[in-house]
Amino acid sequence: MSELREWTDRVVAELGLPEGLDQDEIDLILDLARDSAHGVARPAAPLTTYLLGLAVGRGADRDEAAAQITALALDQP
Question: Is 25 a domain residue?
Answer without folding.
Answer: yes
